Amino acid sequence: MGLQGKKNTSNYAIIRKITSPPTHSRQSAFTIVELLIVIIVIAILATVSLIAYSGLQHRARSSEAKVAVAQAKKKLELYRVDHNGYPETGNLTGAGVTDNDVSYQFTSNGTTYCLTGTVEDVAYNATNTTLPSEGVCSGHAAPNETTYAIGDKGPGDGIVFYDKGSVSNGWRYMEVAPKLETSDIVTWGCEGVYIEGADGTAIGTGKQNTADILAGCPAPGIAARMAANYSSGGKTDWFLPSKDELNQLYMQRNAIPGAYIGGGVYYASTDSSGNPGFAYTQSFNTGEQVVHWRNSNLSYRPVRTF
Questions:
Q1: Which string of DSSP letters, residue by residue, matches 113-131?
Q2: What is the pLDDT of residue 15?
Q3: Using CA atoms, how far apart are residues 25 and 32, in angstroms rounded to an integer?
Q4: Other CB atoms within 10 A of residue 123 CB
Q5: What pLDDT, on the 0 to 100 scale, is given for residue 55?
Q6: Does residue 21 fall inside a structural domain?
Q7: DSSP H or E segment with residue 223
Q8: Is 99 inside any structural domain?
């Protein structure tokens, strides 16, 4: 056997070495579920961190606005001592208070004032008798609030004709519909029929008046129904103005671009209390407000609040 046997044994060892599977140490690996869990945990931690950071930023802006208003209040008091009164509206710089990181709004008649200081989305206000508190003075614009002037185009593509100075009861402005493409000559409706409600006269009552008319008068094509069915700028919350709202529109008629509020007599949504045959109207020639027969063919114009 000799050399031949050794040769065969050597060859067998080589073959065995080549064909034997390699040995590896077992290594653990993440499954898809485990990876998803890790990703979710990271996302939650990131969200929590972002919220905490945003909260810190908000508190920092609040502190800045509050301190700034308190300092401005001291300057206004020093001004009062030196000048025997507060600076009037528009003259805040006279007291050494100017816009920088904080923007100011100031309303004063010389003996009283209200001051608003705004830092991005935070506002603080103070008066001559109160300490700084969060929020804005009445008539001042809230942070990031879109403001409108009389004659501006409103959200419903109408024209702004009334600004009550600040938001209350969910609205601040009133806009009147653009000139109607269809005929605006209609009746008030349901002559002789007593309608529960519809007797509001003040600004802010026209919407409820309109709802009362629709509930008590099913007739089609009447002024209140035409106004309520009107749509413009994606807005469908139009109504027939009350007696005082209509008068406000008359007073601002010259500020309406295009002068489309011309002459003629317009219906208000205010019923003539105690007499179901009449409703209030206003002449846009003379400004006179009188009661008219409900079956008279007169003009109307939808308005809305926002």
A1: EEEEEEETTEEEEEETTEE
A2: 45
A3: 22
A4: 27
A5: 67
A6: no
A7: helix 223-228
A8: yes
Compute the distance between CA of residue 92 and CA of residue 107 in angstroms, rounded to an integer. Answer: 9
pLDDT at 23: 52
Q: Which two tokens stand for residue 157?
A: 């593509």
* 172 shares a domain with 129: no
Residues of the chain with confidence (pLDDT) below 50? 1, 3, 5-7, 12, 14-15, 17-18, 24-25, 258-259
Domain that holds residue 253: 159-305
User: CA 282, CA 265: separation in Å to the nearest integer?
Assistant: 5
| Residue 39, in any domain of the structure | no
Q: How many domains does the chain divide into?
A: 2
Same domain assignment for residues 120 and 168? no
In sequence order, what are the beta bridge partners of 125? 116, 133
CB 73 within 8 A of CB 132: yes
Cα–Cα distance, 38 to 66 (Å, whole number): 42
pTM of the model: 0.61
CB 274 within 8 A of CB 234: no
Q: Is 67 exposed, middle or buried (0-12, 13-18, 19+ CB in 10 A)?
A: middle
| Residue 197 DSSP code | S
pLDDT digits (tens, 9 = 90+) for 107-151: 999 999 999 999 999 999 999 999 999 999 988 988 988 889 999
Examine residue 43 and state whether it is found in any structural domain, yes or no: no
Q: What is the pLDDT at residue 256? A: 76
Please name every residue paired with 261 in a beta bridge, in sequence order, or none if there are none: none
Say how many C-beta atoms besides its own lie within 10 A of residue 151's C-beta. Answer: 13
